[in-house]
Amino acid sequence: MTAKVNVVHKEYAVKKHLYLLMIVPALVVYTLFAAYPFISSLSLSFFDWGGVGPKKFIGLQNYQMILHGILSQEFYRAVVHNAIYFIGTWALTIIPGLFFAFLLNSGLKGTNIFKIIFFFPNVLPIIVIGFLFSLLLNPQWGPINAFLRGIGLEALVRPWLGDVKFAFPTIIVISSWKMLGFYILVFLAAMLSVGKDQIEAARLDGASEMHIGWSIVLPHIFPTVVTLTILKFIGAFNVFDIVYAMEGTQAGPAGATDVLGTLFYRLAFGGLGSTAMGMGLGAAVVSLIFVIVFPLSILYVFILDRRMGGIE
Amino acid sequence: MKKLFAMLLLAVVVISFSFAQEKVTVWGWRPQDVPLWQKVERILQSRGVKVSIDYQPFLSSEYFSKLYATLQGGSGPDIMYTGRLPKFPAFRSEIEQKYQASYPLIEGNFLLPLDGKVDFSNFPDSTMNLIRQNGTTWGVPFANQIVGIFYNTEIFEKYNLKEPSTWDELLAICDKLLKNKVTPFYVSGKDAWTLAMQNAIVSVSYPGEDWIAKLLNGETRFTDPQYVEMLTALNDLKKYYQKDFSANSLAELDMAFPMGQAAMVFDGIFGSANWLQSNPDFKFGFFPAPPKVKGVNPKVYVYMDGSLAIYAKSKHQAAALEVLKFTATPEFGKLFSEETGEMTAVKGVTMPADKPVLVECYKAAMSIASKSIYWTGGPFDMGKPTVYTILSPNMQAMYLGMLSPADFAAKIQDGVGIWYPPFKK
User: Which residues of B touch A135 (CB under 8 A)?
Assistant: First the structure.
């Protein structure tokens, strides 16, 4: 009997170690590419370091400079821009994404072609988008202004990327255009999991398509909306590439498109004249981005956990 | 069989030849230098120097981060392009040198001291001061840049225009061009750094070199009425720029100017290669920004662009040194100017006759370069925030009507006043 118990215990121990062994590859990758860079970046934020050579420990001076010192104005302006970017891109991707997903899910003709059309911008490299739109939006000969002039809307013609009021909204619209296809596909996938019987029953009961969408489909895909909203928030506070492609690291005009990503880039890598790099300052900005994004990441994991639990 | 033998022989020759050459890796931020290095390699090899050069250019905005990351990892190129050092030795003890691009390389012992190894007699002291620290020389300067106003000679000839000698004459030229429906200036307002450059181009003539000297010594401030007047003059000039200039980039300027879409640009000689690429028949001239009144000598803004340094732990130090010795000669200086169309840092070099504007710029750099400057290469580069980082976005803000010239001047003063020692006295 004791021998049998020992065998069971041994088997359990082996299985337990096997589980641990199985998470090792993921753990190694996570440690190397996520945990280590983050901890290293966090520790760097307490140093004055030009990117090479000896580092000088300066405590919280980098944070002081960013939050209360000479960089505070730029930092808070960037935070506001990131928040605006989140709200803008949320409104221009989640809402139209849901709308087009409903349309594509309703069995209209040519659905697949529309899916490809919507998803196409998503596969274009950001640098291509930047180049493409810099041509389209050229104030003198760009086709967008030419079109507006052509249809008699001269009053709407403007230097889109050089106008303090319009540069950032333009970037938000372009970014949303690029991402819209992805949101449509995710919502479509979520809609496909809605029980057909339920919808059929509702139709038999005389419910309109609108009513079905509002009362059956939307509640079903609501967790997906929440998940995508959280991911969008995290993405919005990490945005860099689209602003860099459209306006460069200076994020002009006059800082009107400056976000935390471009601020980080300027501080960390210098790049203006013979200004040296400030890796410590850059690391401090990254740590502050983490402070903003981390609570939402936890919420995301919590929701994901609950949804996985529901599936089980 | 004969064929096989011949091929084997060829392979042996090629392999032995490549083994005989010592490969020197050069890292830089200038893609236009690729043919230059190929020629340097050929010249050195023809003289029996057993060296092959592998030049790798990187994006200028990423260059230093890549270089530093590699050096920090324990390796590096044999030769590297490096930035300037502080220009004003008098302030060195007071200003934190860590903000200079080359300083971390020196502090981290990554560079090989070159004194006694390379002959620097072909460089003027003014240039050498930018790469010497505490009596030690850390690099071989490779280029001087000159920035000013470039103009389309065909347009100037067509409307019988002459290079202006005062600011009012410049305005008169602009008015005449406007009357004839020609855009006087093409400005790349989207690339903020070019606006900072524009500010610097004008400053050396108006308010002028002497005023800048006083500013650097702390005898005056950016808020001085003379400086505010210059900013106002610049702000007033915007009516002569192309419509919606705030959305145009330097790449667009490089196409529009040589295609005759505007008569003048504020730019550096480094832009000329791009113009000629867009229009090989393009004819252009150069003049310094005019001073406010007649009788004051106009000045040009000249700065050392960078230098070539040797990695202290290079495994090919002897070969790299051979390459660097050559880059310190007038022969290299001539080759550099011929290949790149830019000004060599070596003195006494005859500029290529087929590049008349380069000849003119070189002459201007030698004769009317401003001794005092406050943009790139000046002492305001040595702290945080630099004048460069303040000028760029705020020039945009002024042009867009968000900031008055007086407020702009105050902003520069407030930013630099935090750290610039003469302003703290």
Answer: none
